[in-house]
Amino acid sequence: MISIAKPLMGEEEKRAVLEVLDSGMLAHGPRVKAFEEAFAAMCGVKYAVATSSGTTALHTALLAHDIGTGDEVITTPFTFIATANSVLFTGARPVFVDIDPRTFNIDATQIEAAITPHTKAIMPVHLFGLMADMGAIMDIAQRHNLVVIEDACQAHGAEYHGQKSGSFGTGTFSLYPTKNITSAEGGMVTTNDPEIAQLSREIHHHGMGKQYHHHRLGFNFHMTDVHAAIGIEQLKKLERFNAARAANAKFYDEHLQGVVTPFVPDGYRHIYHQYTVRVPDGKRDALRDYLKEHEIGSGVYYPLPIHKQPYYQELGYDLTLPEAERAAQEVLSLPVHPALSQEDLETVVSAINTFMAR
Ligand SMILES: *Cc1c(COP(=O)(O)O)cnc(C)c1O
User: Residue range 129-152: average pLDDT?
Assistant: First the structure.
């Protein structure tokens, strides 16, 4: 079986975990701080705050920007549910804007029409490892005095005209096992703003400033040193992992036939968290079954846009976003992780080309 995702754990990670276990400092120890500093450096920002997951990083970032009941946050419906749920956790309301069919990311040209007096933030998602149109989004945010929170949970090391994801607005990352690097579970909030960094730190640790002095309601969202130890070793390998993914993607770009391969606008560095093709003519599910029969894993991210999810329907979302809905019918993500062999890549290409030529 060629799997769709595979975390790559080496001796370095194993040794680092055992060192933490032997040290007795399992949480609030030196590894978390070291991981935060290394992660901030990777993004090119001043501060990073390590969290227990990408979801808690999103939640923390929204609260740090004082987003809550009565506020609206503009985001994409074509993403993992955590993006929009994190807005709901704060009491605010996600407002969905359709996607650009070429990039699968929020269509920046439609954002301004969705702005109301209640809009507080724009939350673009850098889906599949390709950054949203940050030039246009930062420009709109500036003109309307809005906060930008990047959901970079799939975009560690991705770039927009040489600038890293998580360094435009307040960044949020996930370190779940399927992401380009992992700490088993974990997340990160990134920022250049010392106030947002301090607020994030307090929110993710029971609203605590000075030891046992709590000046706001906070959560227990921090990362352990065991997870940080894994993350530190994974971060050292990020460039190598991303380069391997890009090389696999290039092979697919050059050899796949009958499907629409990923579009990368000029000046963007795609880090291929997913290599996602469009399968035309309603053949997506049949292709997926065919690949499964040939022991090739694939994924549909995502089969239902968020505004069509049962829970959001219950909340009263009743809108049509045609490009997100069409993408949900057509997308198929193929294995692109660094552990694939040349033979694996050829197997995938040959299966797809055979099926699509029928
Ligand atoms: C993975 C992911 C999240 C959530 O991260 P967790 O670590 O699983 O909580 C949020 N948004 C997007 C786009 C993701 O891919």
Answer: 98
β-pairing, 93-96 vs 119-123, is unpaired
Ligand 1 center from residue 163 Cα (angstroms): 22
Residue 209: the pLDDT is 87
DSSP 93: E
Residues flanking ligand 1, CB < 6 Å: 53-55, 79-80, 82-83, 125, 151, 153-154, 174, 176, 187
Cis, peptide link before residue 302, omega less than 30° from 0: yes
Active site positions, annotated: 179
CATH value of 11-236 in 3.40.640.10, 3.40.50.720, 2.40.70.10, 3.40.50.300: 3.40.640.10
Instruction: Name the residue at shortest CA distance from atom 7 of ligand 1.
Output: 54
pLDDT of residue 314: 98
pLDDT of residue 205: 95
Best residue among 176, 182, 221 to mutate for probing ligand 1, ranked by most atoms within 8 Å of CB: 176
Q: Please tell me the CATH code under which domain 239-356 is placed.
A: 3.90.1150.10
In this prediction, residue 354 has a pLDDT band, given cuts at 50, 70 and 90, of: very high
Residue pair 283/337 in contact (Cβ under 8 Å)? The answer is no
Amino acid (one-letter) located at 226? V
| pTM of model > 0.90 | yes
Q: Which atom number of ligand 1 is nearest to the Cα of residue 53?
A: 7
